[in-house]
Amino acid sequence: MTAAASPALLHQVGERALTWLDEHREHFRLTDDDRATSGSVIERLKPIGELAINMRVLSREGVAGSRQRDRSLRLLDFTWRELLDGGNVLADLQREEPLSPVPLEIYATFFELGHRHPGVEDAVALARRTASWRALEMVPNRRLGVLNAERKLGLVPSGDFDLAVERTWLGQLPEPWTVQFHIAYDLTHTVFHLTNWGEAPDRIPPAIADYLTRYLPAWTEDWADLGHWDLLGELLVVDACLPRPALDAQMWQRYADAQSGDGAMPVCGGMPDGNAAEVFDQVHHPTLVAAFASAMATSRALSADAAV
Predict the structure, then answer these.
(1) What is the C-alpha separation between 183 and 145, in angstroms, rounded?
(2) Distance of alpha carbon 19 from its chain centroid, rounded?
(3) Mean pLDDT across the chain, nearest whole number?
(4) I need a labelling partner for 116 at 20 to 30 A (CA). Which of 43, 176, 255, 271 fits?
(5) Span 59-96, pLDDT tens digits
(6) How far apart are CA 120 and CA 188, in angstroms?
(7) In this structure, is residue 1 part of a structural domain?
(8) What is the DSSP-derived secondary structure letter of residue 267?
(9) How confident is the model at residue 2 (pLDDT cuts 50, 70, 90)?
(10) What is the C-alpha to C-alpha distance for residues 48 and 82, in angstroms, rounded to an integer?
(11) What does the radius of gyration of the chain's CA atoms come to, in whole angstroms?
(12) Domain assignment present for 56
């Protein structure tokens, strides 16, 4: 039996991360240089999409109080109206890069919230009628991301979801000592897409849940010893999705201790040096992950307390 981290500690990590993200939200904006080529837009849309997904998680879980929920909803509104120009940025990109899954995946998050943009939906429908949409080569966990986005939009899936899960690294339950850097991120994102970013943890097949419960403590110990806080945060989200927790309060304490005083979370080691824009580019992802991990773990902790 593992000792759980206190809800107060879990909440504090997320509150500080969300405060930093809100105070630095202008750095998410696309610049004129970004808009010059579709490739640059795709690259710069990645953090915008991550912001949307993570704020959606915070607003969905609703465990951190009305102030944090309101702040997450304001950031979602800012993302849709200002960063994405009410969806026009996604529609333009889908027309320019019809086989890119990026606009589809980002749009699916806002579709869940009730936003609609006919231009995005028409461009996606056109691309999905092609054989190329199904033939497009991508790693298995990325295919899961596309299938999950289609599911959120209520579209007929372009592939078999269960088969896509089986083809992932995690779905094959390989030797646990092969969890290297890029494999670890493939593993975490398989869980994210499988559960719709933690919304439906019961979608994790029992064999995969048992496998993760058995080996997650050793993996997190290794990455914590290396001070890789970005990956550790993602693994903490995985733990919050399991039927029973595999990690104890000490792991969360190590993670919380790595957070900077202003709420940002470094990728690895300590906070980087540089101007505000340079630092933002390096730490926005682990800080988003900190908010995500906090929301999921707090939700789980409060649910466990209520069940006692």
Answers:
(1) 16
(2) 18
(3) 93
(4) 43
(5) 888 766 678 888 999 999 999 999 999 999 999 999 99
(6) 28
(7) no
(8) S
(9) low
(10) 11
(11) 19
(12) yes
User: What is the distance between the alpha carbons of residues 201 and 265, in angstroms, rounded to a whole number?
Assistant: 25
Q: Structural domain tally of the chain?
A: 1
Residue 143 corresponds to which amino acid?
R
Question: Is residue 2 domain-resident?
Answer: no
- Percent with pLDDT over 70 in the chain: 95
Backbone torsion region of residue 245, taken as left when φ is above 0, otherwise alpha when ψ lies between -120 and 50, otherwise beta: beta
Query: Running DSSP on this structure, what letter comes out for residue 173?
Result: -
Q: Which domain holds residue 149?
A: 7-307
3-state DSSP assignment of residue 291: helix
The CATH code of the domain that includes 253 is: 1.50.10
> Phi/psi at 268 (nearest 5 deg)?
-150, 130
CA distances from 19 to 2, 52, 166, 290, 308 (A): 30, 15, 39, 12, 32
Residue 80 lies in a domain: yes
**141-183 pLDDT per residue, tens:** 999 999 999 999 999 999 999 999 999 999 999 999 888 889 9
Question: What would the pLDDT profile of 117-135 be if each residue is shown by its tens digit?
Answer: 999 999 999 999 999 999 9
Helix (H, G, I), strand (E, B) or coil at 270: coil
Distance, in Å, from the CA atom of 189 to the CA atom of 141, rounded to the nearest integer, reads: 7
